[in-house]
Amino acid sequence: MARALPALIPLGYGKFVRADRIYALVPLEGDERGDGRRTLVYVDGIEDPIVASRSEGAIARDVAGALGGAGRSRDSAEVPGQEVLF
CA-CA distance, 26 to 39, in Å (whole number)? Predict the structure, then answer.
């Protein structure tokens, strides 16, 4: 049986990456932010981060849902087997 590819996560402005390739999200602050720049997304296999126009929280929720964490509410902070980061 063929294995399905992981979901593509929208980063905004027509940019998409595979959920299983995202390994870091860095929110932009201050002068770095603006003109659609909200988050740096680090993707396995791509040397430089991708600038996303979506927030790190929105991207993280999409990644969690795509990788099996679906059904968690926005305010839920506990993930079995992982320490709370925020």
Answer: 6
